Amino acid sequence: MARVVVDVMPKQEILDPQGQAVAGALPRLGFEGVTSVRQGKHFELEVDDDVDDETLERIAETLLANPVTEDWTVRRVTVESADGSVAGAV
Amino acid sequence: MARVVVDVMPKQEILDPQGQAVAGALPRLGFEGVTSVRQGKHFELEVDDDVDDETLERIAETLLANPVTEDWTVRRVTVESADGSVAGAV
């Protein structure tokens, strides 16, 4: 069993109103020094060991991200056993 | 200038209908071997170097996550210069 993390972010040229809302709220709440906030999605998948990288890439492209407006990264995270944030979720 | 990544996930005991929808769609689209999908949020912040970890933790807790229903992690990512996904966003 392997854990896979997919992070999906709006492309640079795409407006990010959620991130901008957070960035605008920070000074009002007294937090200074944050010059940019971008908000995206974070997926944690638990997959069988025989699922290859190409399949993961297709899953990300097909279901998790919109290739027109979003960029994404896929990375494997080593997990020895069912220990946490994804494992107990089903 | 430092880049900070905050990942926010629903707590284990909280239902995650978005993740379950993705998990349910995968077999219908021909993707086998994914046993669990959890969906959360991924924030990329660009902050001044004098913003300390305690402030980042308070930002995450106050604005980015709901402590009642979500867990989060804060990590710094080293960036030499404005080179990418956060830097060009403002």
TrEMBL record, chains A, B:
Give the pathway annotation.
Purine metabolism; IMP biosynthesis via de novo pathway; 5-amino-1-(5-phospho-D-ribosyl)imidazole from N(2)-formyl-N(1)-(5-phospho-D-ribosyl)glycinamide: step 1/2
| Subcellular location as annotated | Cytoplasm
Alphabetized, the UniProt keywords read: ATP-binding, Cytoplasm, Ligase, Nucleotide-binding, Purine biosynthesis
SUPFAM superfamilies registered for this protein in UniProt: PurS-like
The record ties this protein, via PANTHER family, to: PHOSPHORIBOSYLFORMYLGLYCINAMIDINE SYNTHASE SUBUNIT PURS
| Protein function | Part of the phosphoribosylformylglycinamidine synthase complex involved in the purines biosynthetic pathway. Catalyzes the ATP-dependent conversion of formylglycinamide ribonucleotide (FGAR) and glutamine to yield formylglycinamidine ribonucleotide (FGAM) and glutamate. The FGAM synthase complex is composed of three subunits. PurQ produces an ammonia molecule by converting glutamine to glutamate. PurL transfers the ammonia molecule to FGAR to form FGAM in an ATP-dependent manner.
Can you say what this protein is called?
Phosphoribosylformylglycinamidine synthase subunit PurS
